[in-house]
Amino acid sequence: MTLGVVLAIGLAATVAGISTVLISIFLGMFLALGLDPAVRALERRGVSRNLGITIVAGTFIIVVTVILLVVIPATVRQITAAVDSAPATIAAMRESAWYADVEQSLGVDLSAVVDDALRSLTSVSSFLAISGGVLRVGFGIVGGVSSFIIVVVLTLYFVSSLDGIKRSVAELVPLYRRARFSRLVDEITSSVGGVVAGGVALSLINASVVLLLQVAVGSSIPVVMSIAAFFITLVPMIGSLVFLIVGGVATLFISPLAAVIFAVAYLVYIQIEAYIITPKVMGRAAAVPGVLVIIGAMIGATLMGLLGALVAIPITASILIVVRQVWIPAQNAKAVAETG
User: Fold this and answer.
1) What is the mean pLDDT of each run of 10 residues along the chain (340 residues)?
2) pLDDT for 267
């Protein structure tokens, strides 16, 4: 009993120690499954799989390069500009009529509260406490860049060797079950790939809409808001509603009217996305009941954070495929009650 507990604790500690590596491997496979539908689409058009993999991998590298060379510098510039203009923005907000109305309604000196918050956030001790120290921040940046490169490399590897991996896994199953197992694995990977590709496409569309809306209302950080929208809306169903709140609050710094315009326009887009865009983009790839999506996202977020919420639909879809293709047929085959 004691030995089992020690082994369990040791195993848990080992998994925790290599959690970053496991997450990188998992994310690389996840992205590879999302790129695989593009390879299969090229194959259906007469392109050989090797050439299709080369095209998709090259496109993936180009997109990553564009993100590194264009999007990130633009984001840094906008964040810097927002920080520089923050005092003027706060001063203009304090002088506005709506700010005075809110202050009078609450009966609180909001200016004093804001000043105290700014002094607390900008103090050296608070910065070190929040960031965990300059060295930790530096190591975090280096580790993030390294993890990003590892994920890109793993994604390219998994895309090129996905068929071989599936064949190797199938060889672990007895020969008389191998054909059915292979079909089940193909169906699961196709479903997961469709879900991942569709989810990324929906988030890109969502981010583009947010970029246009933020530019229209005069935001000084439209690219930053667009990037935030992309990552937040990767979480199915819940993400768009979360960003509605985040985007609305952020747009309040422009003006209440801008926040209302953004919130109404984005809410209209959410409805269009839910009833028109999502069914066309996802098709049958995510035939998962909405309640299971929400439950899966909540469980995944609790266990693995954002990554767990992102993989909620693919994992749920895979479980449903196994239930429909394996468990339900096995139950239907039991026409007579077992005795014994």
Assistant:
1) 63 61 78 83 85 86 79 73 69 68 67 62 51 53 70 84 86 86 83 80 91 90 87 80 89 86 94 83 60 70 68 74 77 69
2) 94
Which positions ≥6 away from 322 have C-beta within 8 Å?
184, 188
Burial of 196 (0-12, 13-18, 19+ CB in 10 A): buried
> Which amino acid is residue 295, in one-letter code?
I
Helical H segments across the chain, by residue range = 2-17, 19-44, 49-66, 72-95, 97-106, 110-122, 124-131, 134-170, 175-216, 222-232, 238-251, 256-272, 278-282, 290-304, 306-310, 312-322, 328-332
**What are the b/e assignments for 232-269, b being 16+ CB within 10 Å?**
bbbbbebbbeebbeebbebbbbbbbebbebbbebbeeb
Distance CA 231, CA 315 (A): 19
pLDDT, position 6? 63
Give the 3-state secondary structure of residue 221: coil
Rounded (10°) angle between helices 134-170 and 175-216: 140
Contact 70, 194 (CB under 8 A): no
> Are the CB atoms for 229 and 206 separated by under 8 Å?
yes
pLDDT in the model for residue 138: 55
pTM for this predicted structure: 0.70
- Backbone dihedral angles phi then psi of residue 335, each to the nearest 5 degrees: -80, -20
d(CA 245, CA 49): 44
Q: CA–CA separation, 109 vs 235, rounded Å?
A: 38
Tell me what pLDDT residue 180 has: 85
Is 36 exposed, middle or buried, given 0-12, 13-18 or 19+ CB atoms closer than 10 A? buried
DSSP 163-203: HHHHHHHHTTS-HHHHHHHHHHHHHHHHHHHHHHHHHHHHH
Distance CA 280, CA 205 (A): 13
